[in-house]
Amino acid sequence: MTSIELDERLVQDSYPVTELPLCQLRLMDDARFPWLVLIPRRNGISEIFELNEADQQQLWREATLVGQMLKTLTKGDKLNIASLGNVVAQLHVHVVVRRREDAAWPAPVWGHGEPEPYDLDGLAGMRDHLLARIEALKLRAPGSASTTEGV
After folding, report:
1. Which domain does 92 fall in, by range?
2. What pTM was computed for the model?
């Protein structure tokens, strides 16, 4: 499995969940929003078009499946998938489920208020739910395991 150097802001702002075939899947540390980040294990990439065609297709597959899984799990109203990179240049894709009653609706979640970090029980519960769904989808990378880094 290809290793990757993560931007320090991604490390500080999120928790690892598991490894998918292309991406490291991380949970943003903001309990206000069901919010995952996919980070392709390709160093030196800041734009989707810099990935080869197979990796582009795999990234979209992972984003689509993870998004559908997260929306179903959290019973959200709308799924947002975005790659911004204005603050963190390293290619990463946000997968955020929105609810009409969430703190930022209908505005974007980025830069809205102060993050509300997960408590340890909330983090463990969310991670367990995500891993169970990912396992059911058979989406995890061969030989990967869940991770407890940062917990």
Report:
1. 8-137
2. 0.90
